[in-house]
Amino acid sequence: MDEEPGHEELVFLYHSGELPQAGRERFEKHLASCDQCRRSLEDLSWASDLAREAAVRPEAGLTRRALARTLGEDGVRIWADRARSMGMGLGLAFAVGLFLLRTAHPPEKSPAWPSGLDTEFSELDRRLDRLDADLSLDSWNVEFKENWEHLGRSRQGLKSQLDEQEEV
Asked: Are the CB atoms for 14 and 24 separated by under 8 Å?
């Protein structure tokens, strides 16, 4: 190599095919007369061949097995897992939304009482109205008067119960 700088770089460029055509022709003429550059080129070629042979090649079917393991045997498992996760996430979001809506806007008190007092009260009013319409003032008798008073007491009792529940 005659200690000229750049010969090792020229050997590498020649070996890798990166040397331009004019430089390639000059280097080939130089190789004919320089044993050191020839040995460097042979060593570089030997090392490259050895590296290519030693390269790890995946065994047959490795890609197929890796994909099968990742996706599931039929490719469905990963989608089922994603769908399950998405469904659980949507359900959780819905539950949190309901909770927040319920706490932000508590339900107003309904005028209808769960005990059914409003229904009984309405029925008493309806019966009293019907009795008023059916009976004339001149047909008052003792039985009617007792029924009327009983209905009035029932109405008052229901009304007081309703008032007590409204206070609570």
From this structure: yes
Q: How far is CA 57 from CA 24, 61, 65, 113, 130, in A?
A: 33, 12, 15, 80, 99
Task: Say if residues 165 and 116 touch (Cβ distance below 8 Å).
Answer: no
What pLDDT shows up at residue 116? 66
Nearest to 27 by CA among 45, 38, 42: 38
How far out from the chain centre does Cα 153 lie? Answer: 62
Q: Which two tokens stand for residue 123?
A: 């029925």
168 vs 163: CA distance, rounded Å: 9
Q: Please enumerate in sequence order all residues whose Cβ is within 8 A of that of 118, keeping only pairs 6 or more positions apart, or say none.
A: 111, 112, 162
Q: Are 144 and 135 in contact (CB under 8 A)?
A: yes
Could you read off the pLDDT of 76-135 as tens digits, one per residue? 566 667 778 888 888 888 888 888 877 776 666 555 555 666 777 777 778 777 767 665
Contact at 8 Å (CB) between 118 and 162?
yes
pTM, to two decimals: 0.34
Q: Which residue has the tokens 């190599």?
A: 1
The answer to whether 67 touches 34, Cβ cutoff 8 Å, is no
